[in-house]
Known about the structure:
Number of helices: 2
Strand order of the largest sheet: 10-18-17-4-15
Helix content: under 10%
Amino acid sequence: MRFKAASYAVTFALLAFASAGPGPLGVGTLTGVVKLKGTPPNFSPQPVARDHAFCGKTQPQQALVISSAGAVRYALINLKGVASGELTPKRGVLDNRNCQFMPHLQTLPVGSTLVVKNSDPILHTTHGHLVEYLPSHGAVHPQGQGEGAAHHHGDEEVEDPHRRLKHQESLFNVALPFKAQELEVRLKKPGLIHLMCEAGHGWMSGYIHVSDTPYAGVTDQEGRFRLEGVPAGEHELTVWHEYLGLLVQKVKVLSGRETPVMLEYSPPSHAH
């Protein structure tokens, strides 16, 4: 009887091990911080061309938000080449608030519903284009060698990073003339969506990443991100930032453990 009980215990242990998940060791958690080396460029406030009574004469830029410790906010984190996990559509919110898109960048699973709101007492529009990002030098740079989003080329002016967004398709365009108005948009296609307000608010710009995998995230005000349930093994981690460009790093996720990574952009050789 003791021998049979031991045999059953071994059998159950082997079955549990075999069903642990992708690869021999299951899944783990990937955490990290994205930083910028050196001193960040000093951006001037963006001039406001319309609705001064509410929006003011200038608005702060959102293209590069850096903490005092050099942490990069609004960087898009993505794992490439990972077998698709469970993808559950969500209900996201995009608010036209204080003459800005809030949040500036977010990621949602494909098939999600986006609630577009207007919290301001003025007309806003929200136009979303599916876009392709075009690196300045046509290459993705390894970790620690960020390309920078704009450069001086001889005597040429500094490049506007939005010029490197190739608009491919208009996905939605909604008008919100009233405060507290809400409309819903279904996010049917994966990819990067560039947001604009065409009610004379040219400074308003934002992004939505529609992901076809659950392994995507956005850095917070401390530059941190966290991806859970990642299959154990080696993967390609991609970081995209609208101003700083692209970083790529190989990572190895360990089963049942938290794997920390640090990613750093080189100082941009330009300023606005």
